[in-house]
Amino acid sequence: MIGAGPSGLAASKVFASRNVPFDCFEAGSGIGGLWRYGNDNGMSGVYASLHTNISKESMSFTSRAMPATYPVFPHHSLVLAYLEDYAASFDLHRHIVCDTKVTSVRPVDDGGWEVVCRHRGTEAEETRRYSAVVVANGHHWDPRLPTPAVPGAEEFEGTAIHSHDYRTPDPYAGRRVLVIGMGNSACEIAAEISRTAARTFLSARNAAHVYPKMLLGRPADHLASSPLSDLPRFLKDPALRLLLRLSRGASAQYGLPEPVGGPLASHPSTSDELLVQLARGAVTPKPGVSSFGRDTAAFTDGSREAVDAVVYATGYTISFPFLDPAVFAAPEGRTELYLRTVPPRLPGLYFMGLAQPSGAAFPLLEPQAEWIAELIEGTVALPSPTDMTRAIAREWRRHRTTYVSTYRHGIEIDFRTYRRVLRRERRAGRRRVR
After folding, report:
1. Which residue has the higher pLDDT, 269 or 177?
2. Domain contains 153
3. Is residue 92 domain-shared with residue 189, that is, in the same domain?
4. Is the peptide bond prior to 148 cis by the omega test (within 30 degrees of 0)?
5. Cα torsion for 174, 180, 186, 191, to the nearest 10°?
6. Per-residue pLDDT tens for 25-63?
7. Could you tell me the sign of the dihedral formed by the alpha carbons of 251, 252, 256, 258, in that order?
8. What protein family does this chain belong to (predicted)?
């Protein structure tokens, strides 16, 4: 098992409870993955003030709720404490080998997988043989910059970082800052920086629906389990659009263009702070960046602004540095995986948490790990590789008609649909072994 973040911990809990023998390798000195602030594995982009944009109820693992004493939207330190308590409660630390980086995973001709790992502080590598490998290295750690680069980016003389490296607004006090992107990180970072910056610009090529964290007195993510979620899509989309209009108002009130697609066509961006700062004029919305000068940025509407610093909140590349791309890769953010888990023609290789649900990912992880454990134990069986490949193709056809066509949405899924399909597949898998 590669990684001891939320996905690796959920898989470890399930495997340990089923007495499936395993080793879990973690490159950092502690568990928690991206939720460990300043993680020494270099993969955490958590900034100092970050709180979840998903409520504690929705974010909990299926087997263990977050403490009732937690606020509705916990600080990242509380999420880490929850993960540490989860690991301790199920005695997972005895299975986890920290400070150990997996450098290579390759299939062996006679079956199984060869795994090469290196312990921190030494160049010596250790090679082990496993019948199966569970990849749980996450998909929010490898910063992705605009490709091709924005013309003039190399000439820009101000500071430029990816949001992965952002920690506090202090370096931006009194400066003119451009935040590029309109996902959750872009919205929250722009709002935070704007409180002390001289000017803050938020640039997005495509407008997004910005959700308030609370709707009708409840966390917005609770909509995923409300009667609204049971409506057919052609009714759900306009109903959600109306709900946003009633609770938040029109995008134009905040200087934002109206998004082209419906609220369900893209991953939700959630931020109360941004809406307030837009209304105050502390954040100025701009369209996409067309070019940079030494101390300026030009935009696709022909405007130009003086800029001292740029924060690229442009998402992450899905990558697996320990896998040869000829074995498995995710070109353009697309993964050829049956139920986002199984590569059809690579027996014994499984992927955990490699999906972006419209709600929280944590509740999906243990059921996914249960399925993987059943496959390893042989209590369920997969469809044939040909049937899995056909199913993947069908899913991609549905995906293209459901979500906007961007790298970010390559692994987008609907929470309820995925959970339902996974339950159905586990039942079908049991019938296949009879």
Report:
1. 177
2. no
3. no
4. yes
5. 30
6. 999 999 999 999 999 999 999 999 999 999 999 999 999
7. positive
8. Belongs to the FMO family. Belongs to the FAD-binding monooxygenase family.
Can you tell me the distance from the alpha carbon of 409 to that of 318, in angstroms, rounded to the nearest whole number? 12
User: Of 164, 184, 163, 181, nearest to 268 (Cα)?
Assistant: 184
Same domain, residue pair 326 and 422:
yes
C-alpha dihedral (144, 146, 149, 154), degrees to nearest 10: -60
Is residue 365 located within the same domain as residue 353? yes
Q: Are 166 and 187 in contact (CB under 8 A)?
A: no
Picking from 173, 178, 176, the residue whose alpha carbon sits closest to that of residue 201 is 178
Name 299's bridge partners: 289
Tokens 């993969």 — which residue? 43
Could you tell me the two tokens for 277? Answer: 């700062």
Tokens of 221: 């993510």
